[in-house]
Specification:
Shape: globular
Helix content: 40-55%
Strand content: 5-15%
CATH architecture: Alpha-Beta Barrel
Number of domains: 1
Largest sheet: 9 strands, parallel
Number of strands: 15
CATH topology: TIM Barrel
Number of helices: 12
Radius of gyration: 21 Å
Structural class: alpha/beta
C-alpha cells in the first residue's frame, strides 16, 4: 500500500475538489463556479474547515479567462488570494489550469490556442513557485475526453460544435503537452495529473455489430491518455514522460448499456471499480488517483463507502491508488438550471459566509479515515520480520 501522507504529491489521501468550471454554455452564458459557490472569496475558511475534517489536500482551479485579460497580459488578483490562503492553511493543491474555459479572444481550434495556453501555464507556474515551497501539482486540461464529447461532438458547451469531437480531443492533448513542457521549463519539480472519466459500457442485447460498437465506445475512454503517452498517434507529440499520475473520475452513472440506460450498482452487468482501476494501472503502469467521485443527496455516504471498499480491494491487489478526491466537496448550482446540487461535504454559504457540514458524509469520511489508518498499521506490522523463536 502506498501512503501519500508523507509524500510530496498530495499530503493527504482524501482530497476535496472545488468545482471550478468556467465554460460558456450553448446559450452563450459563461459560468464561473468558483464565484457562484462562494469559494473564490471563502477559500481560506473552506481550506481550514476541510482541514478540521482531515482533508488537507484539494483540487482547485485558475480562471484563465479572468487572468489573461489581453494576449500575454496577466492579472493574478483572482488567483493570488486563493494560493495564499492555501499556503496559510497548510493545504496542498492540485491546480486545474483549464477547466473547460478560455479567454474570449482565442479560437480553440487554432495553433494560437496551444501557444497561449503554454505561455499562460508557464506564467502560472512562476507565480506558484514564487509563492510556495511545496512541490506543485497541476492538471493542465480537465477531462479532455468529456470535453471533446460535450463541446466538440454534441454542442452542450463551448466550443458548441457537432461532429468534431475527434478533432477537439487531439487539440486538447496538444495543449496539455505544450503546457507540461512549459511548466517543466519553469519548475522541473512539478507533478501532473490527468482527470479523465473512468467508464464501463455493456452491449446488453444486440447483434455482433452492436457488441463491437459497445466495445469500441468503451475503449475511447483510453484514447486521450494513449495519445498523451505516445502509444497512439505519436505524430501528435505524445511520449511516456507526459503521463505522470493517472487521475480517473468515477461517478454512479459511469456505467451504462450502449445506447441505453445506466447500469445500477449490484446488477450482474455492473463492473467492480477495483477491476476497472486494475485495468487502468495495467495499461499505463502509473500511480492512480480517483480525481473525482461523489453522489447527490442521501447517496453521498453510501457512495463513499462503496468507492473506498473498492479502493481497498485495488490496494490489496497491488494497484497503487494514491488518493480519493471527493468532488465537488461543496454544494453548487447546476450548470443548466442553477438548481442547488447537494453533493458536498460542505453546504452553500449562508448570508454570513458560513457553511454547514453534511453530518452523515462527515461520519462516513471519519470512518474511512480510521479504517485506512488501521489498514496501514496492519500492512506495516505484516511487513516486519518475525522475531526469532
Amino acid at each position: 500500500m502506498i501512503s501519500l501522507d508523507n509524500a510530496s504529491a498530495f499530503g493527504s489521501f482524501f482530497l476535496g475538489g472545488f468545482e471550478c468550471s468556467s465554460h460558456r454554455r450553448s446559450d452563450g452564458r459563461r459560468l464561473d463556479l468558483l464565484a457562484s459557490t462562494g469559494h473564490d472569496r471563502l477559500a481560506g475558511k473552506d481550506y481550514r474547515l476541510l482541514s478540521q475534517h482531515g482533508v488537507r489536500a484539494v483540487r482547485d482551479g485558475l480562471r484563465w479567462h479572468l487572468i489573461e485579460t489581453a494576449p500575454s497580459r496577466y492579472e493574478w488578483d483572482s488567483f493570488l488570494p486563493m494560493l495564499r490562503a492555501a499556503n496559510a492553511a497548510g493545504t496542498r493543491v492540485i491546480w486545474d489550469l483549464c477547466h473547460y474555459g478560455w479567454p474570449d479572444d482565442l479560437d480553440i481550434w487554432s495553433p494560437a490556442f496551444i501557444d497561449r495556453f503554454a505561455q499562460f501555464s508557464a506564467a502560472a507556474a512562476r507565480v506558484v513557485m514564487a509563492e510556495s515551497e511545496d512541490v506543485p501539482v497541476y492538471c493542465p486540461v480537465n477531462e479532455m475526453s468529456f470535453w471533446a464529447w460535450a463541446g466538440g461532438e454534441v454542442g452542450r458547451f463551448n466550443p458548441c460544435a457537432h461532429g468534431r469531437g475527434v478533432e477537439l480531443k487531439r487539440q486538447l492533448v496538444r495543449a496539455t503537452i505544450a503546457a507540461i513542457d512549459a511548466i517543466r521549463a519553469v519548475d522541473p519539480r512539478a507533478r501532473f495529473i490527468t482527470a479523465e472519466p473512468l467508464i464501463h459500457v455493456e452491449a446488453g442485447l444486440g447483434d455482433e455489430e452492436h457488441v463491437r460498437r459497445a466495445h469500441a465506445y468503451r475503449q475511447t475512454q483510453f484514447e486521450a491518455l494513449d495519445i498523451l503517452s505516445g502509444a497512439k498517434e505519436p505524430e501528435i507529440g505524445g511520449a511516456p514522460e507526459y503521463l505522470d499520475i493517472v487521475g480517473l473520475n468515477y461517478y454512479p452513472d459511469n456505467q451504462w448499456y450502449h445506447g441505453g440506460t445506466t447500469i445500477p450498482m449490484g446488477h450482474h452487468a455492473y463492473r467492480s471499480l477495483h477491476e476497472m482501476l486494475a485495468e487502468a494501472h495495467g495499461r499505463y503502469r502509473r500511480p492512480l488517483l480517483i480525481a473525482e467521485t461523489g453522489a447527490e443527496g442521501s447517496g453521498r455516504p453510501a457512495w463513499l463507502h462503496y468507492v473506498c471498499s473498492e479502493v481497498h480491494a485495488a490496494l490489496d491487489a497491488g494497484v497503487p491508488v494514491e488518493g480519493v478526491c471527493l468532488y465537488p466537496i461543496a454544494d453548487y448550482p447546476g450548470w443548466d438550471n442553477e438548481r442547488i446540487c447537494r453533493v458536498g461535504l460542505l453546504s452553500v454559504p449562508d448570508a454570513k459566509g458560513q457553511r454547514t457540514v453534511c453530518p452523515r458524509l462527515a461520519r462516513e469520511l471519519r470512518h474511512q479515515q480510521a479504517l485506512l489508518a488501521e489498514l496501514r498499521a496492519f500492512d506495516a506490522a505484516s511487513a516486519l520480520p518475525l522475531a526469532a523463536e
